[in-house]
Amino acid sequence: MRDLALEAAAVEWLRYERQCLLVCLERSPVWGDYRPDVFGVCRRRQTIEIECKRTVADFRADAGKRITSWRKTGALNVRQFYYIVPPAIADAVRPLLPDYAGLLTLGSTDATFTRLPRVEVEHGAPVNRAAKRLTVLEMARMAKHQTATLHRLLTYIVKGERT
Fold first, then answer.
1. CB 118 within 8 A of CB 112
2. How confident is the model over 124-133, as pLDDT tens digits?
3. What residue segments make up the domains of the chain, in order of their start?
């Protein structure tokens, strides 16, 4: 089964540290092929996106994606954008970090109540002040579609399949 430690830690950080009301995996309020790894919606209905990168090569490959140009222009309406990486590659990706992104990594110890490594903010993400609040309908759609993701993940767990 794929290692989902980065995603699990990002979800926990958004939910408990950033107090997001809605946290989704592979879902966004924008339809199409835009599926951020982890996406949170804060109390003011503003958003935080987190992309999980496990290797420096994976991090570099992100620069060539169409979605990256949308992030640069703020077209995705995300208030803050972060990459989360394993601690072993944090030093290597820090100089490659785009100016619109923050950097998160995992702490070295199991420090949370769920025994996941605590997320450490290596570099804070700038705030996109032009980002608009999500509508209640957009949030409802995200919650509806997230139930499909939860069902898929639970099915994988029950059947012992790969994600």
1. yes
2. 999 999 888 9
3. 5-159
Residue 1 confidence class, pLDDT cut points 50, 70, 90:
very low
| ∠ CA 89-71-45, rounded to 5° | 105
Which token pair is 59?
């991090």
Tokens of 42: 């804060």
The β-bridge relationship of strands 38-41 and 47-52 is antiparallel
Q: 134 — phi, psi (to 5°)?
A: -70, 150
- Edge-first strand order for the sheet with 47-52 is 22-25, 38-41, 47-52, 80-85, 102-110, 117-123
- Three-state secondary-structure class, residue 110: strand
Owner of token pair 């809605």:
22
Tokens of 45: 């209905």
pTM equals: 0.87
Q: Was domain 5-159 assigned CATH 3.30.420?
A: no
Q: Which residues pair with 40 in a beta bridge?
A: 23, 48
Q: Which contiguous run of DSSP H or E holds residue 47?
A: strand 47-52
**Chain center to CA of 35:** 10
The 10s digit of each residue's pLDDT in 29-40 is: 665 566 788 999
